[in-house]
């Protein structure tokens, strides 16, 4: 269990590194995981944290929601930052990934 939870200092510096990878250009979690050298799962975890904390720093994590590529349904109400499994309207799994940028 301790392996999957590195010390807080390291979590902190991972998050700073991820923050530096974010820009005005919207990027998917997969792109960010490659740029920051983190797993996609860690990226999502950090993004969720940044989503909450950045608001107090006059910056904002902008989430471009996932969308269905078949019927154009957009996952506006989705609060989780992970990629949805399938479209609730047409059941398609042909979905775009949520993308993240910094404002
Ligand atoms: Zn759909």
Briefly say what this structure is.
The chain is an alpha+beta fold and 103 residues long. It contains three helices and three strands, in the order αβααββ.
Task: Describe the fold and architecture.
This protein is an alpha+beta fold. It has one domain. It is about 35% helix and about 10% strand. It is built from three helices and three strands. It has a three-stranded antiparallel beta sheet. Helix 1 crosses helix 2, helix 1 packs across helix 3 and helix 2 packs across helix 3. The longest helix has 14 residues. It is globular, with a radius of gyration of 15 Å. The N and C termini lie far apart (about 35 Å). Zinc ion binds next to loops.
List the main descriptive attributes of the protein structure presented here.
3 helices, single chain, 10% strand, three-stranded antiparallel β-sheet, 103 residues
- Alpha plus pi helix count: 3
Order of H and E elements: HEHHEE
- Which overall shape is indicated by the principal axes computed on the Cα atoms? globular
Biggest pleated-sheet summary: 3 strands, antiparallel
Total number of domains:
1
Average of per-residue pLDDT values: 90
Tell me the distance between the termini: 35 Å
**Cα-based radius of gyration, to the nearest Å:** 15 Å
With strands numbered from the N-terminus, the spatial order across the biggest sheet is 1-3-2
**Secondary-structure class:** alpha+beta
């Amino acid at each position: 269990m301790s392996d999957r939870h590195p010390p807080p200092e390291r979590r902190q510096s991972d998050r700073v590194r991820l923050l530096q990878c974010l820009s005005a250009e919207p990027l998917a979690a997969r792109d960010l995981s490659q740029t920051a050298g983190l797993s996609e799962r860690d990226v999502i975890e950090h993004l969720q944290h940044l989503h909450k904390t950045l608001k107090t720093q006059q910056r904002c994590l902008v989430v471009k929601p996932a969308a269905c590529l078949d019927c154009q349904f957009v996952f506006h109400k989705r609060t989780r930052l992970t990629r949805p499994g399938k479209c609730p309207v047409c059941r398609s799994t042909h979905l775009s990934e949520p993308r993240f940028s910094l404002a």
